[in-house]
Design a protein that fits this description.
The chain is mainly alpha-helical and 218 residues long. It folds into 2 domains: 64 residues, Arc Repressor Mutant, subunit A; 137 residues, Four Helix Bundle (Hemerythrin (Met), subunit A) (Up-down Bundle), CATH 1.20.120. The protein contains 9 helices and 2 strands; from the N terminus they run H-H-H-E-E-H-H-H-H-H-H. A hairpin with a 3-residue loop joins strand 1 and strand 2. Helix 4 packs antiparallel against helix 9. The N and C termini lie far apart (60 Å).
Length: 218
């Protein structure tokens, strides 16, 4: 008897495409915080099997955008101070540890290119592109740790971070985004690790305070 006998290879392409589509709708505000994702209604509207919708929702649950509630099913996450603190503390620990290291020439070049792409996105005033490039810049920072496992861990945080950055992008101007990221990159280029750590910490703390202020107003 083969050790692989009975193993089924399941194609999840359709579910992943649905998860990506639902994620985009959540980011765009089509589903608000606390809204239910009614699997039967979505399946009927899209003409897709309910099991496929369920699988897509589970993918979203893994990204942190959706959670299950008793008697309600899948709902879009509703930001709380505790969730914001937990997510951004994890981000701060990774990025400050990374910036305490001296980047290689290749890593510095990758950071510089990521910043240039963020600047380019900012000139287009495309909010989604700005968020994408923002996350890519910070991914390059985490890569200074030279750990593929930590790279993967941060990548796992990015979907939930994308949700919050999209919220922030509604309030921030492109010039603000560029200025805050240039303040991080400049000391990295100069080899001033202490200042780079201080700048990324200030950047993250500012984001947390803005998110909490917006939460109080809602």
């Amino acid at each position: 008897m083969s050790a692989l006998e009975g193993l089924e290879v399941r194609r999840t392409t359709t579910a992943q495409q649905l998860a990506d589509g639902l994620s985009e709708r959540i980011m765009a505000g089509a589903f608000g915080p606390g809204d239910r994702l009614r699997e039967s209604a979505i399946a009927a509207e899209l003409g897709v099997a309910r099991n496929t919708i369920r699988e897509a929702v589970r993918i979203l649950e893994l990204t942190g955008l959706v959670r299950y509630e008793v008697n309600r099913g899948a709902v879009v996450i509703a930001p709380t101070n505790e969730k914001i603190d937990a997510l951004y503390t994890a981000r701060e620990r990774l990025e400050t540890a990374a910036l305490a290291r001296t980047p290689s020439p290749e890593q510095l070049q990758a950071l510089t290119e990521a910043f240039a792409q963020l600047e380019e996105a900012a000139t287009s005033n495309d909010r989604n592109a700005i968020v994408d490039r923002d996350l890519a810049f910070h991914q390059r920072i985490v890569e200074l740790l030279d750990s593929s496992r930590l790279d993967e861990f941060f990548a796992g945080l990015t979907q939930e971070l994308r949700f919050y950055l999209t919220v922030l992008a509604k309030e921030e101007t492109p010039d603000q985004v560029i200025a805050e990221h240039r303040a991080i990159l400049d000391p990295i280029r100069l080899g001033d690790r202490d200042r780079a750590v201080a700048e990324v910490r200030a950047h993250i703390d500012t984001s947390v305070q803005r998110l909490k202020a917006m939460l109080e107003e809602s």
